[in-house]
Design a protein that fits this description.
The structure is a homodimer. Chain A has a three-stranded antiparallel sheet. Chain A is elongated, with a radius of gyration of 19 Å. Helix content of chain A is about 70%, strand content about 5%. The first copy, chain A, is mainly alpha-helical and about 230 residues long. Chain A is built from ten helices and three strands; from the N terminus they run αβααββααααααα. The longest helix of chain A has 25 residues, at about 80-105. The first copy, chain A, has two domains: about 15-75, Orthogonal Bundle (Arc Repressor Mutant, subunit A); about 80-229, Up-down Bundle (Four Helix Bundle (Hemerythrin (Met), subunit A)), CATH 1.20.120. Mean pLDDT of chain A is about 90; it is low at about 1-10. Chain A has helices at about 15-30, 40-45, 50-65, 80-105, 110-125, 130-150, 150-170, 180-195, 200-210, 215-229, and strands spanning about 35-40, 65-70, 75. In chain A, α2 crosses α3 and α8 packs antiparallel against α9 (about 200-210). At the A-B interface, α3, α4 and α7 of A face α3, α4 and α7 of B. The first copy, chain A, binds a DNA duplex (30 and 30 nucleotides) through α3.
Chain lengths: ~230, ~230
DNA sequence: GCCCGGAAAAGTGTGTGCACTTTTTCCTCG
DNA sequence: CGAGGAAAAAGTGCACACACTTTTCCGGGC
C-alpha cells in the first residue's frame, strides 16, 4: 500500500519479533503473494539469522492464519478461496456488529461526537474522490467503534481478522459509489449509537460490513484473480 | 475432566504435534493450573525430546492463548481475569448467535429434527441430574448448530474459543436450574430455527450463551471507568 | 517417446552447544 | 538484623549439525 521496501535484504540483528513484523508486512503489502513458498534457509540468509528464529516466526504467522505449514513441506503464503473470504467477512461483520451494539450501550456523548467527526472526515475524502485518505479515515472510524466497545478481546479478534482482510477492503474502496455509500451507512450507524438503539446499531453495522449484503461476491472473485495471480 | 494421566512421564517419540495436544490437555483438564511455569528443559526431559520441539509447542500454545510467553522469562499457563472472561463470553455468544442465524437460513428439515433430538437427549440427562452426560449432550447440541451454519471459518473460531472457555462452561453446568433452563432455551432456539426466524434464533442463542446477559457487565465497566478516571 | 525406479539434491525436524539474560544466593556493610 | 550488590545458578535465545523426508533429476527398460 505504501512503501515498497519489501524483499530487500535486511540489516543484521533482526530478532524473532522483528522478523514476524517484516514478513507480515511483506505478505499484507502483497510483496509476497498467496502461494509463494517461504524457504526457511533463504529467509535465514536474507535476514542474516539462523533458521531457528525464522521457524518461530513462520509458526507464529501460521497460527495467525497468514501462512500455511505442512509437515516436511515447509511454509507458503496462505491463499483464500472466495468461499473462505465470504465466510470471514460474515464473521467480521458480526463482530463489528457486536462492537457497534456495545457502543450504543456504552459510548459517552463526547465520544459519539468524535465518531461523527471521523465520519465527516470520510465524507470530505469521499466527495473529493481521494481513495487513499478515505481508506485511512474509514479505518479510523471503524477503529474508534472497536475502542468504544470497550471489549479488549473483541478488539484483538477484530484486529486480526481486519488485518487478513485488509487487502480486500482496500480494493473495495475503488468500487463505484462505494465511498459515498459507506459515508451514508456510517452516518446511520452513528445515529443509532447516539440514540442508544443497540439493535439498529448492530444490524446496520453488520449490513455495512457484510459483503454478501451488497451481493459483492462477483467483486470478490475478480479481486481473487487479481491478488492471487 | 476425564482421565488423570497428566504430569506423568511420557513415552518416547512424542513429536511436536503430540506435545501440543498433551500440553493442551494438561492445561484444559486443570492438571496444569493458571500461573504454573512451563520450564522448557523440564518438559524436554519429561517428554524425552530436546528443547526445540518443546519450544515450538509452547509458541503454538501461546498464540492460541493458552499460555503466555515473555521474552527471556519463559512460558506460563495463562490465567484469565473476570473481565477477560466476560469479554470472551460476549464474543462467543455473538458468534454462536451468528451460527444460529445461519442455521435458521440454511438448515434442512431433517437436520432440524436431529437438532431437536439432540436437545431431547439433553432433557433426559437434565431430568436425571446427570451432569457429565448433560455436558456432553449439550456440547453435541452446540456442535450441531455450528456445523449447521455451514461456515468453516466460524466453526473454527468458535471451537478455539469454546476450548478456552470449556472449564468455565463445565462449572456452570452445576449452577442450580442451569440444566433445565438450558433445555428450555435450546427448545426455543430450535423452534426459531425451524420457522426460519433468523433474528429470533440469533437473539435467543446470544442470550443463552452470554454469561451476563443482564446488565452486570456494564455496571462493572462503569465502575472501572469511575475508578480509573 | 514415455514411464519407472533409484540416487542425488534440497529442505525440514530435532539434538546439542554456547552466549546472553534473568533470577537466586550469599556475603558485606550500615 | 535488614539492605545492597556481586557472583553463581538457572533458564532462555540463537547458531549449527545431523538425521530423515520429500523432491528432483537422470538413465534404463518398454
Amino acid at each position: 500500500m505504501a512503501s515498497d521496501v519489501a524483499t530487500e535484504p535486511q540489516a543484521h540483528g533482526a530478532s524473532s519479533s522483528n522478523l514476524i513484523r517484516v514478513l507480515e508486512d511483506d505478505i499484507l503489502s502483497g510483496a509476497l503473494r498467496p502461494g509463494d513458498r517461504l524457504d526457511e534457509q533463504a529467509l535465514a540468509r536474507r535476514f542474516s539469522v539462523s533458521r531457528t528464529p525464522v521457524r518461530e516466526a513462520l509458526r507464529h504467522l501460521a497460527s495467525s492464519g497468514l501462512v500455511e505449514i505442512r509437515r516436511n513441506q515447509g511454509a507458503m503464503v496462505r491463499s483464500l478461496t472466495t468461499g473462505e473470504l465470504v465466510e470471514m467477512f460474515q464473521v467480521l461483520a458480526e463482530m463489528q456488529g457486536l462492537a457497534a451494539r456495545l457502543c450504543a450501550r456504552r459510548m459517552s456523548r463526547s465520544k459519539v461526537k468524535e465518531l461523527r467527526q471521523l465520519n465527516e472526515a470520510c465524507e470530505r475524502y469521499a466527495d473529493r474522490d481521494e481513495h487513499v485518505q478515505f481508506f485511512a479515515a474509514n479505518t479510523e472510524f471503524h477503529d474508534a467503534i472497536e475502542r468504544g466497545a470497550q471489549n479488549s478481546f473483541l478488539m484483538e479478534e477484530n484486529a486480526k481478522l481486519a488485518k487478513r482482510l485488509r487487502a480486500y477492503r482496500w480494493h473495495m474502496t475503488f468500487q463505484p459509489r462505494r465511498m459515498s455509500n459507506s459515508v451514508e451507512e456510517h452516518f446511520r450507524i452513528v445515529e443509532a449509537i447516539e440514540r442508544g438503539d443497540e439493535e439498529a446499531a448492530h444490524k446496520l453495522m453488520r449490513a455495512h460490513v457484510d459483503l454478501l449484503a451488497g451481493s459483492a461476491t462477483d467483486v470478490l472473485i475478480a479481486l481473487e484473480a487479481k491478488i492471487n495471480g
